[in-house]
Amino acid sequence: MVKRCLGLIASVAVTLLGLLLVTFLIGRVVPIDPVLAIVGDRANADTYSRLRMELGLDLPLWRQFLRYLAAVAQGDLGQSVLTSRPVLEDVLRVFPATLELATVAVVIGAALGVPAGVLAATHRGSLADHAIRLLGLVGHSVPIFWLGLMGLLLFYAKLDWVPGPGRVDIVYEGLVEARTGILTLDALLAGETDVFWNALHHLALPSVILGLYSVAYIARMTRSFMLDQLRQEYITTARVKGLSEARVVWRHALGNIAVPLITVIALSYAHLLEGSVLTETVFAWPGLGQYITNSLLSADMNAVLGGTLVVGSVFIGLNLLSDLLYRLLDPRAR
């Protein structure tokens, strides 16, 4: 057990080191001068040289990387040019909005994707199976920003079923203290039901649009897992024993794919956390994706790299969690 724990820690450490190295190299190869982003293109040569030395950009690349490692180990992701605040502080402020959006989206994906995959597998070749497979193809093929724009055009501009872009109407901004950063939860904790329902209405359309990708992926993987299980001998034995088809499918077959399905849902969640950039941009959602996009357009590389590092760390953490759950729930993996 000690050897396994040490091996797991070493694996995570190497992965994080690789993520830090890639993030560092991206910041050095992009055609953006961080010094000019801070001082502007009208600064004199002395100011430019002094700031370049202060930032350590005159040092060899390996020494710059060591300084970067030391700073990240202390929680220092640099200063944002756009907001003039520490990047870590900005990320902690905007990440809960992304977490809220991605969490609702993955709940939608799991709630719709798993039954759809089971239905497609148990009715293979039927109209329902073809429709679900077509939904999966559309979910992976259609650009999410186009779906977002069409959703706003139809449900907001034409039908007026949902509120416009943003996280809450302007009249409700600032009424709720940000305890967790998740607005719907903070509104409930503060007893502000009007803010809660308004925030929930704003959350509905972007979470459904973002959840379509998750539905497509989870339904496709569930269908594949179920088809494999339904061909197994224990399914035939259960049917011969007289068990109902619903019990065979939902209790035995689905129970045996629960462990790999947890991994699929966890990976889908990670992809939603990192892939919400376009959705947040279209819906003016003040999350990490929009923060990274605005920082990139403003040549604020500290913020871009800091946000990228946080997303990568979350992805590693969710992969690790799914692996631990796999070993915990499946005796064969142990």
Explain what this protein looks like in three dimensions.
It is built from 15 helices and no strands. With 334 residues, it is an all-alpha fold. It folds into two domains: 2-73, no CATH class; 90-333, Orthogonal Bundle (MetI-like fold), CATH 1.10.3720. Helix 1 packs antiparallel against helix 15, helix 5 (87-122) crosses helix 15 and helix 12 runs antiparallel to helix 15 (301-329). The model has no long low-confidence stretch (mean pLDDT 84).
Q: TL;DR?
A:
With 334 residues, this protein is mainly alpha-helical.
Layout of SSEs?
Layout: H1 2-29, H2 34-39, H3 45-54, H4 61-73, H5 87-122, H6 127-141, H7 144-158, H8 183-190, H9 193-230, H10 233-240, H11 245-256, H12 258-274, H13 277-282, H14 288-297, H15 301-329
Helix pairs in contact: 1-15, 5-6, 5-9, 5-12, 5-15, 6-9, 7-9, 8-9, 9-12, 12-15, 14-15
InterPro entries: BPD_transp_1_N, MetI-like, MetI-like_sf
GO molecular function, one term: dipeptide transmembrane transporter activity
Domain ABC transmembrane type-1: 95-326
CATH superfamily of the largest domain: MetI-like
Count all strands and give the number: 0
**Overall spatial form:** globular
* Top CATH class of the largest domain: Mainly Alpha
CATH topology of the largest domain: MetI-like fold
Number of helices: 15
The helix content, as a percent range, equals over 70%
Beta content: under 5%
Distance between the termini: 11 Å
The major sheet is characterized as: none
Mean pLDDT: 84
Radius of gyration: 24 Å
The figure for the number of domains is 2
Secondary-structure arrangement, i.e. CATH architecture of the largest domain: Orthogonal Bundle
Main location: membrane
Protein name: ABC transporter permease
GO molecular function: dipeptide transmembrane transporter activity
Subcellular location: Cell membrane
